[in-house]
Inverse folding.
C-alpha cells in the first residue's frame, strides 16, 4: 500500500532478505525510501530526463534517531519536490553530481578532509595526519581523480613508503582509508580503494625505563633548561597519563584539596571522563606550580591562566619532543644509528614509554591488572593485559610465602 512517508513509517520499514527494497511516497511521484539488506535507509528520487532516460538520484541517508544525522521524511520530500521542478526545466541532477564527482581530485578530497574532519580530532592527531598527507599522499596522488583511484594506486604508495618507514606506510593507508570512506559519504565515489591493503607487521613496544634510567632521568630533569617541559615529564612519570592529557591539563579539573584530577572526555583517548587520584609527589608538584603561577599573576596584576602549562601561540603546551631529546641525552637514555656515513645519537625511549614505565612500576609492586587499567584509563582489559608478565616477581614472592607457611605447618613448626 502506497502512503505518505513519515519518520515513524521510515523507522518501521523492515530490511529485505537480500538486495534492497524501496517504499514509495503517495504525495511526490518517484520519491521513496530505499532499505538495503543491511538495514541502511536512504531517500531516493526516480525520474525521467527530457530525453526519456530513467534515472535514480540518492537524496541522502534517512534520519533514524530524532535530532541525529540524516534527512527527515519531510525535509527529503521538499528536496525531492525541488529536484522535480528543476528536472522539468531540463536539469539532470544525477548528471551534475557525476560531473562534479568526476572532476574532484585527491587534492580536493584532502582540502575538504582538512576543513571538515580534522577539526574534530585532537591537536596531536591533526599534526600527525597533516605530516602523512603532505609527505606521502599529496606528492603521489594530488592530481589523480578521486573516482579513478584504484587499489593498485594505494598499494603502490604503501609499498613505496614501506621501503623506508614500514609503520608510517601503515598509518598512511589508514588516513587514506578514512578519506575515501568520507568520499563515499560525500558521494564522490562508491567504494574504498584503501580497503584490503596488506599492512606491514608491527611489533608492540614494551619499553620501560629501568631503575637506573629513572634515577638518571630525574637528575637530568633537575637541570633541564625548559622548566615547563621538565614538570610535564615529571607528571607523566607520576600519573601514567598521556602527554596530550598532561599538556592540556586545566586548573579547574584539579581538586588539590581532595587530591584528584578529573580528565575531561575531550582530552582522553576514549573520549570519556576519567577521574584519577593524585599521588603525594604529584600533588606536591602541582601545588608548587600553582603557588608559582599565582605569585607571578599577582605581581603582573593578571588572572591565573586556565591551563597548568600555557603555550606560546596556543592556549596550552602542545609539544615537548625537543626537551625530551635533551633530557634523554643528558640521562644517557640513547641509541645510535648510521645515516649517510655518520653516527647519529637519538633517544632510545619515547615520551609514551613513560606511561609504560608507570604501569610497570604498578605491576611489579603487585597491583592487579584491573587497578592498573583503572589508573591508566583503559576501556578494555585486553589493553592492560600487556603488563601481565611484569607481575611475575610479586606472584613468585606470594607463592614462596605460601610455600613457607604450608611446609611449616606440615612439619609442625
Amino acid at each position: 500500500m502506497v502512503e505518505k512517508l513519515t519518520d515513524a513509517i521510515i523507522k518501521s520499514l523492515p530490511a529485505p532478505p537480500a538486495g534492497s527494497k524501496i517504499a514509495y511516497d503517495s504525495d511526490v511521484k518517484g520519491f521513496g525510501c530505499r532499505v538495503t539488506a543491511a538495514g541502511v535507509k536512504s531517500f531516493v528520487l526516480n525520474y525521467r530526463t527530457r530525453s526519456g532516460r530513467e534515472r535514480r538520484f540518492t537524496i541522502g541517508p534517512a534520519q533514524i534517531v530524532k535530532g541525529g544525522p540524516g534527512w527527515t521524511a519531510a525535509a527529503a520530500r521538499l528536496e525531492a519536490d525541488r529536484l522535480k521542478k528543476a528536472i522539468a526545466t531540463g536539469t539532470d541532477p544525477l548528471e551534475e553530481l557525476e560531473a562534479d564527482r568526476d572532476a574532484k581530485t585527491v587534492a580536493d578530497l584532502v582540502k575538504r578532509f582538512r576543513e571538515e574532519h580534522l577539526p574534530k580530532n585532537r591537536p596531536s592527531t591533526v599534526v600527525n595526519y597533516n605530516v602523512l598527507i603532505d609527505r606521502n599522499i599529496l606528492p603521489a596522488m594530488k592530481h589523480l581523480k578521486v573516482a579513478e583511484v584504484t587499489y593498485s594506486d594505494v598499494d603502490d604508495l604503501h609499498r613505496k613508503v614501506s621501503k623506508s618507514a614500514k609503520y608510517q606506510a601503515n598509518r598512511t593507508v589508514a588516513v587514506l582509508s578514512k578519506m575515501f570512506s568520507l568520499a563515499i559519504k560525500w558521494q564522490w565515489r562508491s567504494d574504498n580503494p584503501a580497503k584490503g591493503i596488506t599492512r606491514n607487521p608491527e611489533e608492540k613496544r614494551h619499553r620501560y625505563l629501568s631503575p637506573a634510567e629513572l634515577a638518571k632521568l630525574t637528575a637530568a630533569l633537575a637541570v633541564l633548561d625548559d622548566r615547563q617541559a621538565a614538570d610535564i615529564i615529571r607528571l607523566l612519570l607520576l600519573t601514567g597519563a598521556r602527554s596530550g592529557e598532561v599538556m592540556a591539563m586545566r586548573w579547574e579539573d584539579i581538586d588539590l584539596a581532595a587530591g584528584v584530577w578529573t580528565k575531561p572526555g575531550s582530552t582522553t583517548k576514549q573520549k570519556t571522563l576519567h577521574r584519577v587520584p593524585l599521588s603525594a609527589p604529584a600533588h606536591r608538584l602541582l601545588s608548587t606550580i600553582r603557588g608559582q603561577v599565582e605569585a607571578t599573576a599577582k605581581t603582573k596584576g593578571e588572572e591565573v591562566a586556565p591551563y597548568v602549562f600555557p603555550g606560546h601561540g596556543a592556549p596550552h603546551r602542545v609539544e615537548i619532543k625537543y626537551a625530551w631529546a635533551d633530557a634523554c641525552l643528558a640521562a644517557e637514555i640513547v641509541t645510535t644509528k648510521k645515516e649517510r656515513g655518520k653516527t647519529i645519537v637519538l633517544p632510545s625511549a619515547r615520551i609514551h614509554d613513560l606511561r609504560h614505565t608507570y604501569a610497570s612500576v604498578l605491576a611489579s609492586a603487585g597491583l592487579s591488572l584491573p587497578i592498573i587499567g583503572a589508573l591508566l584509563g583503559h576501556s578494555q582489559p585486553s589493553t592492560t593485559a600487556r603488563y601481565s608478565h611484569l607481575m611475575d616477581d610479586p606472584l613468585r614472592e606470594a607463592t614462596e610465602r605460601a610455600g613457607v607457611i604450608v611446609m611449616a605447618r606440615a612439619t609442625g613448626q
Q: What stands out?
A: The two ends are 89 Å apart (CA to CA). The chain has a mean pLDDT of 88.
